């Protein structure tokens, strides 16, 4: 295992992905699929501890900062691409009214503020959380 990739962790990650997807697409069949998110947190914590243990000669805070920097460098470009692609597809398939509402929602998503309540009660937007669907 010279590459440093542990197959057992990858298998747990795969089960976590399948359980979350199952919960989203078949909630009656996978009622506890949301627990896959907890599995991701456990895996992340394990990988952080492994990183700290292997690199104990460096200060722990620089290792944690490096850990999160690498993840943000990997995740943020795709995050922004998805927001842009969603807005682009909404502009092609929906009315101007929905595009304007989704544009407001996307602006909040760009600054990671989607969960901050708004004054408008009837806000429509793809990136806005829809709590009545999360029953």
Automatic annotation (TrEMBL):
GO terms for molecular function: acyltransferase activity, transferring groups other than amino-acyl groups. GO terms for biological process: polysaccharide biosynthetic process. It comes from the Eukaryota. GO terms for cellular component: membrane. InterPro entries: Acyl_transf_3_dom, Acyltransferase_3. Signal peptide: none annotated. Residues 9-95 form the Acyltransferase domain. The chain crosses the membrane at residues 12-27, 33-53, 74-93. Keywords: Membrane, Transmembrane, Transmembrane helix. This is Acyltransferase 3 domain-containing protein.
């Amino acid at each position: 295992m010279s590459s440093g990739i542990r197959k057992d962790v990858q298998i747990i990650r795969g089960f976590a992905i399948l359980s979350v997807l199952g919960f989203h697409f078949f909630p009656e069949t996978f009622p506890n699929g949301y627990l896959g998110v907890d599995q991701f947190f456990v895996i992340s914590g394990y990988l952080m501890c492994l990183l700290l243990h292997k690199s104990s000669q460096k200060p722990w805070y620089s290792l944690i900062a490096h850990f999160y920097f690498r993840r943000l460098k990997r995740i943020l470009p795709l995050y922004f691409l998805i927001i842009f692609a969603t807005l682009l597809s909404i502009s092609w398939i929906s009315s101007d009214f929905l595009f304007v509402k989704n544009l407001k929602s996307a602006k909040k998503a760009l600054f990671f503020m989607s969960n901050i309540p708004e004054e408008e009660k009837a806000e429509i937007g793809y990136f806005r959380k829809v709590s009545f669907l999360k029953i």
